[in-house]
Amino acid sequence: MITFCEFMKRALGDPEFGYYTQKARIGFAGADFYTAPEISPAFASLLALQILELDEALGSPDPFYLMEAGPGNGTLAEGLLTIFMNADRKFFDRISAVFFELPGILEQEQRKRLEKFPLSHPPQWVHIDEVQRSGGKIPFSGSGVLFGNEFLDALPVHRLRVSNGEWKESYVEVPEKGPVKEVWGPISSPVLQEELSKHFPRDLAKMEGFETEICLEVSATLDALDKFLENGFMLWIDYGDIGVERHSERRKRGTLLSYKDQTVSEDLFKGGVGEADLTAFVDFSQIAAHLSTLGYRFEGYTNQMSWLMGLGFPDWMEANQERLSSEEIECAGVLLHPLKMGRIFKVLLMSKGKTSPVRHSGFRYGGLQPPLEVR
Q1: Is residue 247 left, alpha or beta, with left meaning phi > 0 and alpha meaning psi from -120 to 50?
Q2: Tens-digit pLDDT profile for the chain (375 aa)?
Q3: β-strand 64-69 against 181-185: which pairing, if any?
Q4: What whole-number distance in Å separates Cα of residue 75 and Cα of residue 62?
Q5: Any idea what DSSP says for residue 139?
Q6: Closest alpha carbon to 90 in 68, 65, 120
Q7: How far apart are CA 6 and CA 8, in angstroms?
Q8: Residue 88: helix, strand or coil by DSSP?
Q9: What is the C-alpha separation between 237 and 345, in angstroms, rounded?
Q10: What contacts 243, CB < 8 A, 6 or more positions away?
């Protein structure tokens, strides 16, 4: 029997049967789920503008490390490199592309998509788990931007529930034959208990049945990624919220979901081990707080709708309206729609090292309470 956290880690990343290493299907036709880059090229186009602003703040370094965590099927990287190659060749020639990925089918697809680009600096693939096992030894570090779209939500989490006035943790039995079985037992570690004490009251009498998730692995992941960035920015785009909202009554059923065959389900064991994507809401307060301990400065936090509007979504639509079909226009709108991706997705930007003050257009429209630890 293992914790749900360990089960999620294996189900997504096991070399032999993990979802992301062997079975991931991202996109529309025949896929399990899609992300913003598949929905509309507007996403890559506007992210490209943000990246160019960050390059300016760094003084246009050569090389400029363009680092993506969890590149998926490579759609976003392909879109960005196409834009830079066609619109700003000088910047394109300075790019050193780095991709943090698990070895497996997604890395193979990324390599195939990106082999056509005549990059001055050959792209590199880095396996974070290998960096962690090596004691933090890295092959390079430099100036640039490290970003991820729907990466943090797939980090394994501990699943917890209030039962009879105390916290219980989810454990999973995976028999050689038959269905996966979930059981609830005592908290697996003092560290996890300490995290629960930070966010929830001691008296749990009124919280019976409340469920939540805590990601303990995010700190080690951010530590490993940080080693590759001497000066620059981390930009995280994902669905989630600040801690006080993430652990509020609104989320009393928890946020863990399973994605398979374009269907969202609360059945976390649907289809068996490694057959579906598993995700949980990101705690952006946790991300910002840990990065601040690593020396990062808070630059901006907003929702995806405001971020894309700040970067010029209306201008992009006007410039491309003649070549976009009605369906493509509708798809682009999904990125901003407040009941679809516009509000549930958040964008966090933080910086470290030597950067010059520069206007970050994506954060010109605020309206959200920033991550509490860095206010």
Answers
A1: alpha
A2: 999 999 999 999 999 999 999 999 998 888 899 999 999 999 999 999 999 999 999 999 999 999 999 999 999 999 999 999 999 999 999 999 999 999 999 999 999 999 999 999 999 999 987 777 776 678 889 999 999 999 999 999 999 999 999 999 999 998 888 889 999 999 999 999 999 999 999 899 899 999 999 999 999 999 999 999 999 999 999 999 999 999 999 999 999 999 999 999 999 998 789 999 999 999 999 999 999 999 999 999 999 999 999 999 999 999 999 999 999 999 999 999 999 999 999 999 999 998 888 778 999 997 788 885 443
A3: unpaired
A4: 25
A5: S
A6: 120
A7: 5
A8: coil
A9: 7
A10: 199, 283, 284, 285, 286, 371, 372
Q: Which of 238, 241, 233, 337 is nearest to 295 (CA)?
A: 233
């001055």: which residue's tokens? Answer: 120
Do the beta carbons of residue 354 and residue 230 sit within 8 Å?
no
Cα distances (angstroms) measured from residue 33 to each of 188, 202, 279, 348, 367: 32, 39, 12, 23, 30
State the DSSP H helix or E strand holding residue 293, giving kind and residue range, or none if neither. Answer: helix 284-293
CA–CA dist 375, 358 (Å, integer): 19
- Please tell me the distance from the alpha carbon of residue 74 to that of residue 44, in angstroms, as a whole number: 12
Taking alpha carbons only, the member of 229, 31, 15 closest to residue 101 is: 15
